[in-house]
Design goal:
1038 residues, mainly alpha, 0% strand
């Protein structure tokens, strides 16, 4: 119809006063718009294509952007005529903008995406309204009506755009809180409530953050002290919010921090009415978080505690309402540990005292007392309660800032007494630093009550070990003593032998029921109980009052060491009750099994420096820690019978050290059965007891089960073999025997066979006085049956000990020259170089080189050794030695060395010249006869040696050496004979036209000039004329 087209075109005109639409709206109001739009849409629905035919574009709806939506959005008046559309259409109520009508077509569409787009357009229109608050009131009311009937995706998109994307401005959230609450309730009741959970959590977080940011702003004369309604709603919908963290994040500085806001945060985070067991930990976690608003170095939690009184009030209120079992650990230990770590941070000044105010209030003391009562009554199980008490002692020690005994703690935590694990025993550290127990008196009394109750006794005892490694004092001493009183040492020893073979038993006996842990709890108890010198003797006395006191020797070393060094009478009682390892039918005790714990033989090893020498039974040859001299002879005899029955190194080393027991008989017994094989093979597989025999099992009485399993063990593998290593060890140990004379009688039988026996004899003689040693050396060391090694050691010891009149001992060992060549060499060297022997008394010794009974090689060997000694000692006291050396020069290979010895000699010049003359004559003859001697003959080697020194240069060296030796006291005849022999050699050089002849003659004349003595000038002409005659005579003779 024409009027419809007209109205359609009118709707496309502008809103200015000169435009039709603007004029009509000014005249008739918004109803003109709705009536015109209704006629156009109605006509379009009845005759399709009317509008499209006249206009191929949609109306210009952008012209409506400047309209007042609140004035346009009024409901259309009811019409009696036909409705605008055949479909149901929800219309926006007034006074929303008339331009929203364009979105009605989308929000009523069948497509969910189109409807969601329509809702978004409406939100944008509301944002651009000149009164957004009023516009959103209308829009939110409209959306609430559509919310329940929409699909899930559309509803989620609607809320996401409205809240997450903040189409509803954040500033309006507080104002539109009722609408938000309505949406929240609708979402909570919907079947897809979880879909909106994350979205509403973000909404709640934003509301709370905004409330915290604006908290404390002045509002007239009043100041905000309580949270706003929007803050409470935000907390409701957000669920679990980390309020302390939000508070710190949105509090710019300590100066702007709101105490009221912090109080609300604290009271909300830590509600008193809550039954949660984590209230106490939550309280301190919140306090630590809020303390971040305090500048560094200003006191942190300490400043908050003193500035904000509500913190202390809240802490007291929490403690006053009682401490549940789940919170007991935190209240008892965690809070103390936390404050200990915080001490450096909470200092307000460098010299500020330590901050313990939360722990010093009466309510906290009462709460601790209540927890201790729960532990003692059994309300808190004994095992868990004892662990709490042990930790309480440790944190109190840290609170007192005394310092932790690290070495003792490591010894306990690592179980260093576990012999099978470490393959040796590591004693408790020397002089451990422990705190005194007065600081934890209540806790120790509570642990005493738990121990007496008998509940979970094994684990309670393990916690007592931990406590005793931290503190010391009378209360701990009593506590540890009572714990030891509950244990059976024999059963504990059996368990130590078999526990690792049966893991189900080891788990029940070890600390914290660990399968790989140590089952031995008695050893650490004993070591920690006896660590104090002041109480050790009294505690040992308590043990000796028991009927099973002897078994305590094998748990740690403190008990055995005290008995060995201080209480030998108690040690004797223990040894009497102990059994020696017997045969299978006699049975074995737990201490007979090696490598499971300390051995009985260790009792003798607690002398000086025992820690250094105690190495888990693997003792070397040096036992400087042996201490048995204080023991009674009967005690030593018992020890020899019970502890030293095997042939291991430790036992063999200790047997000769028994001063008052018949150790020599035991040594002789062992040596008589040498060699002896092992009776039964020593087990080499599982020597440390780790092989699992049965992993699981059941029992009604663990003590009976342990004994039953122990009796099923095979006999222990004890060493009884006596072979070369055992004999050597035994004889070496005899060298340290206290009775030297008796030991020497045994050693003398084996000194020639075993190297260690010679060393042992030597060590014994070092402790004997020289007068007494003289006879012992002659009887034990010098006879031929003693062996070469011992004879040589005896000859050296004669000089070392400065035995008086040693010549007799030398003659005894000499045996008229029928001794071994090493012995002969030593004796001749001693006699030749010693200054105290007269020549006539020792001349016979040197006849050795003329004895036909001696082997030529032996004589050459002895001569070689003697020449070396003479060269090293040039001051010869025996006048006949040059003659002997001249004789030794005729031995093959020794000619040059003999000449060197004569050259080195500083005494007896005439005898030396005579010896040189004889050697030079022999050398000259050998040089002439060398061509006639066959190389295969026996004398060929000697001829070669002599000819080698008969060279002109060799003779010249001899003449030069003689020139240095000749002095005014030298015999003239000896010099003349040497000169005549030298002249003969010179003439040989002349005849041979040797270039060295002139220099040789010069040396001869220099030596001849030595005969011109200053004290006899009248003889000079005769000497000179004789020199001329001899030179001429040699020339004519040749």
């Amino acid at each position: 119809a024409p009027h419809v087209n007209f109205l359609f075109r009118v709707l496309h005109t502008g809103l200015a006063e000169g435009e039709i639409l603007g004029a009509m709206l000014a005249q008739y109001g918004p109803s003109f718009f709705w009536d015109s739009l209704g006629h156009v849409m109605d006509a379009n629905s009845r005759s399709t294509g009317v509008i499209q035919a006249s206009m191929n574009r949609l109306p210009n709806m952008t012209a409506l952007e400047g309209l007042d939506l609140s004035g346009l959005a009024r409901p259309l008046p009811k019409r009696s005529s036909q409705p605008l559309s055949t479909s149901k259409t929800e219309l926006l109520p007034e006074p929303f903008s008339i331009a929203a009508a364009s979105s009605q077509l989308k929000v009523n569409a069948k497509d969910p995406g189109t409807r969601q787009s329509g809702y978004l357009e409406l939100m944008r229109l509301a944002q651009r309204d000149h009164d957004p608050s009023s516009a959103f009131d209308t829009l939110l009311t409209y959306l609430q009506g559509r919310f329940q009937s929409e699909q899930e995706g559309v509803r989620a998109g609607m809320l996401s755009e409205l809240l997450t994307s903040e189409m509803l401005p954040l500033d309006l959230w507080t104002e539109k809180l009722s609408h938000l609450r309505a949406f929240w309730k609708a979402c909570s009741k919907a079947r897809d409530a979880n879909t909106y959970k994350g979205m509403w959590q973000q909404v709640g977080r934003r509301l709370v953050v905004r409330a915290l940011e604006t908290w404390g702003e002045e509002d007239g004369e009043t100041k905000q002290t309580e949270p706003t309604e929007s803050c409470l709603f935000g907390l409701e919908v957000a669920g679990n919010l980390e309020l302390p963290k939000l508070y710190v994040t949105h509090t710019r500085s300590w100066a702007k921090a709101s105490e009221a806001a912090a109080r609300w945060v604290f009271e909300t985070t830590v509600p008193l009415a809550s039954d949660s067991a984590e209230l106490f930990s939550t309280f301190w976690s919140a306090l630590q978080t809020i303390a971040k608003v305090v500048p560094k170095g200003k006191g942190a939690e300490c400043l908050l505690w003193r500035e904000w009184a509500f913190l202390k009030e809240r802490w007291v209120a929490l403690l006053a309402q009682g401490v549940r079992q789940k919170a007991a650990e935190f209240v008892l230990n965690d809070i103390v540990e936390l404050l200990v770590k915080k001490q450096d941070e909470v200092k307000m000044k460098p010299d500020s005292p330590r901050w313990w105010e939360p722990l010093e209030c009466p309510e906290y003391e009462a709460a601790v007392g209540g927890i201790l009562e729960q532990i003692q009554s059994g309300e808190i199980p004994a095992k868990e309660g004892s662990l709490m008490l042990a930790r309480r002692v440790r944190v109190l020690q840290a609170k007192e800032d005394i310092g932790e005994p690290e070495k003792v703690g490591a010894w306990v935590s690592n179980e260093f007494w576990d012999f099978p694990k470490y393959h040796n025993y590591k004693p408790l550290p020397c002089r451990p630093f422990l705190c005194y127990d007065f600081m934890a008196a209540r806790e120790l009394e509570a642990m005493q009550t738990v121990l007496e109750s008998g509940r979970s006794r094994r684990q309670v005892i393990w916690t007592i070990v931990e406590v005793a490694s931290i503190v010391t004092g009378p209360v701990v001493n009593k506590l540890v003593g009572n714990a030891i009183a509950t244990l059976d040492p024999q059963s504990e020893g059996m368990a130590r032998c078999i526990a690792r073979h049966y893991p189900y038993l080891n788990g029940a006996l070890s600390n914290k029921e660990r399968l790989q842990g140590s089952s031995d709890v008695l050893t650490p108890l004993m070591e920690l109980w006896l660590v104090d010198n002041a109480t050790r003797d009294e505690n040992v006395k308590r043990i000796m009052q028991r009927s099973d006191f002897e078994y305590f020797l094998f748990f740690g070393v403190s008990f055995a060491r005290h008995l060995s060094n201080v209480r030998q009478e108690w040690l004797h009682k223990c040894l009497v009750k102990l059994k020696a390892p017997g045969r299978d039918e006699e049975g074995f005790e737990f201490y007979h099994y090696p490598r499971r714990g300390p051995l009985l033989s260790w009792v003798a090893l607690f002398g000086k420096r025992w820690r250094k020498h105690l190495n888990g039974g693997s003792l070397g040859e040096s036992l400087g820690c042996v201490q048995m001299y204080l023991w009674h002879p009967e005690t030593q005899a018992e020890f020899l019978q019970k502890a030293l029955t095997t042939t291991d190194k430790c036992s063999l080393a200790l047997i000769p050290r028994m001063e008052y027991a018949d150790c020599i008989s035991r040594v002789s017994q062992l040596l008589d059965c040498y060699p002896k094989e092992q009776d039964a093979p020593v087990t080499q597989g599982d020597i440390w007891g780790w092989d699992v025999i049965q992993a699981a099992g059941s029992y009604s009485d663990i003590a009976l089960e342990v004994e039953r399993r122990f009796r099923e063990l095979p006999p222990p593998s004890l060493q009884h073999a006596v072979d070369d290593p055992e004999v050597e060890m035994l004889l070496t140990s005899l060298g340290r025997a206290d009775d030297s004379i008796v030991a020497l009688k045994v050693l003398s039988q084996y000194a020639g066979k075993v190297k260690q026996a010679k060393e042992a004899v030597t060590k014994i003689f070092s402790r004997v006085s020289p007068p007494r040693a003289r006879g012992l050396i002659q009887d034990v060391m010098l006879p031929k049956k003693a062996g070469i090694g011992l004879q040589v050691a005896g000859l050296k010891m004669i000089a070392d000990l400065q035995i008086p009149s040693p010549l007799e001992l030398y003659r005894f060992a000499w045996c008229d020259g029928q001794c071994q060549r090493d012995v002969a060499a030593i004796i001749l060297c001693k006699v030749a170089t010693a200054p105290e022997f007269p020549s006539d008394d020792v001349r016979a010794f040197f006849d050795y080189f003329g004895l036909k009974e001696q082997n030529v090689k032996d004589r050459v060997y002895v001569a070689d050794v003697l020449l070396d000694a003479l060269i090293a000692s040039p001051n010869w006291m025996l006048q006949f030695l040059p003659t002997v050396v001249a004789r030794l020069s005729m031995f093959p290979g020794l000619t040059k060395k003999a000449i060197d010895a004569l050259k080195k000699c500083e005494t007896h010049a005439a005898a030396v010249l005579t010896a040189m003359t004889n050697i030079a004559t022999a050398a000259r003859l050998a040089r002439r006869a060398k061509a006639d001697i066959k190389h295969s003959s026996a004398d060929a080697s000697l001829i070669d040696d002599l000819a080698e020194i008969a060279t002109y240069s060799g003779i010249r060296d001899m003449i030069s050496s003689a020139s240095r030796k000749v002095n005014v006291d030298c015999e003239v005849d000896a010099v003349r004979r040497f000169l005549i022999e030298a002249l003969r050699t010179w003439w040989d050089a002349v005849l041979a036209a040797d270039s060295q002849a002139p220099s040789l003659l010069d040396c001869i004349l220099v030596l001849w000039s030595k005969l011109l003595r200053p004290k006899a000038p009248e003889a000079w002409p005769g000497i000179m004329s004789e020199m001329e005659r001899q030179v001429a005579r040699q020339s004519r003779a040749e």
